[in-house]
Amino acid sequence: MYYCVIIVLSIIYGVKRVKYQKPLSSAVRRRLPRYYRYLSTLLELGISKISSKDLGNRMGITSSQVRQDFSSFGGYGLQGYGYDVKTLHQEIGNILGLNTIRNMIIIGAGSLGQALAKHKEFEKKGFKVIGIFDVKTELIGQKITEHEIRHLDTLPQFLENNQVDIAILTIPENFGREVAAYITELGIKAIWNFVPIELKTPDDVIVENIHLIDSLMVLGYNYKHNRHE
Fold first, then answer.
1. What domains lie within the chain, and their CATH numbers?
2. What is the structure's pLDDT at 5?
């Protein structure tokens, strides 16, 4: 979901104008949403500028890491001034594609699927749920927010009439690969996968895996060793 863009940062705020050419590293891409979130908080607090040291302290990373990350896409602050929060927030938003609406569908209308459908922050960040699908007869026709749950068999017709950028999978594990193959054959190019398996997809399909149990097990490990059990 991360595209090469032309980054132009205002000289007024001491930021050089640089044309971004190389794809960002995976590590930098992972940190960009955190930067965006922290910069959003700074804007809400009325803070207009910040140094790499202060931002790093807030995020728990070094100031050199902040400078290195920002320099990878042309975000050079002016020495003695720091970074203009509003400008940097806007440009990171541009890199993340938050200035473009991404239409999403949810496949799997169970508890997790319904919770995601009700998540209000998605649309604020440019990600809009436009359809929810399932195969369980008892769920078809029910409404989640303003969306009526549709049968998965109707997806081809839905795609003919709607632009869908991302499919969210919240279905049982044993159906994960089958459904992934089905939707990619229909032209879906990006999948947010909550199914606890690794999906096999064509090379031109982007998959972002969110394996909740993996994260929980890591937390359990850290908890255990922090308590010296």
1. 11-95 (1.10.10.10), 102-214 (3.40.50.720)
2. 26
**DSSP letters of 69-120?**
HHHTTT-PPBTTTBEEHHHHHHHHHHHTTTTS-EEEEEE--SHHHHHHHT-T
The sheet with strand 190-193 has its strands ordered as: 143-144, 147-151, 127-134, 102-107, 166-169, 190-193, 206-209
Residue 44 phi, psi dihedral angles, 5° rounding: -65, -30
Torsion angle defined by CA atoms of residues 116, 120, 126 and 127, in that order, rounded to the nearest 10 degrees = 10
If you count them, how many residues does the chain have?
229
Q: Which long-range contacts (CB under 8 A, 24 or more apart) does 225-228 make?
A: none
Which portions of the chain are predicted below pLDDT 70? 1-22, 75-80, 228-229
The answer to whether the predicted template modeling score (pTM) of the entire model surpasses 0.85 is no
State residue 157's pLDDT score.
97
**Cβ–Cβ under 8 Å, residues 150 and 142:** no
Residue type, 159: L
- Give which of 71, 76, 72 is closest to 16, Cα–Cα: 76
User: Hey, which residues does 64 pair with through a beta bridge?
Assistant: none
DSSP 8-state assignment for residue 196: S
Instruction: Provide the 10 A C-beta neighbour count for residue 164.
Output: 20
Helix locations, the chain, DSSP H: 26-44, 52-59, 63-71, 85-95, 111-117, 121-124, 155-161, 176-185, 212-226
